[in-house]
Amino acid sequence: MSAYLFPPPPVAALPVTGQAGRFPVDRIFCVGRNYAAHAAEMGGEVDREAPFYFTKSARAVLESGAVLPYPPGTADLHHEIELVVAIGAPAFRVAPDRAMAAVWGYGAGLDMTRRDLQAKAKAKQRPWSLGKDFEGSAVLAALTPAADFTPAAQAIRLAVNGTLRQQARIDDMVWSIPELIADLSHYYHLAPGDLIMTGTPAGVGAVGPGDRLAGGIEGLAPVELVLGAAD
Length: 231
What we know:
This protein is an alpha+beta fold. It has 5 helices and 18 strands.
């Protein structure tokens, strides 16, 4: 038994619909520009040559229904609603037609973004970590096992204070779920506990203290968040 110099952080884990056990979260891979309309509103375009990614740490996980203090270092916090794919089996160098065997389940999530910090990084061609990976930046709803949900043309939407801001269908994604898993598996040994946040549709925008976010995907548990005051 190893002796630690200080207590290790608790395991990030998500509830599962209809089950008592929780899904432990390891790595979080996030897909950029996977809806053409969102790429356009951000001043970019979709590159069909290959998807691209950024990551969030497990410390970013915040369970749906929580209050997120307004994050430090930003004056322009944005919401991004996304379909989340939970990996439940090893996948390495798999073809797209075999990729879905690695999927354990699905959920709805919010990729909260410090947009001003992301924009500064983009302007200098630097990594997006400060804009994307911070405590509470991955707000995740309960997961639904793959046996109970089949991705197709379900609506994905987000409202802020009751006003609809984002709405699309998940089959509007540029890169499909099997394509994303296959591509990622050529760079990583995907393993149970990994999550893929598959990108956001158009309509992203700023939120502030006191705002209430409510979104989801048809057939999955909703994701909700309240923005609190800054720490």
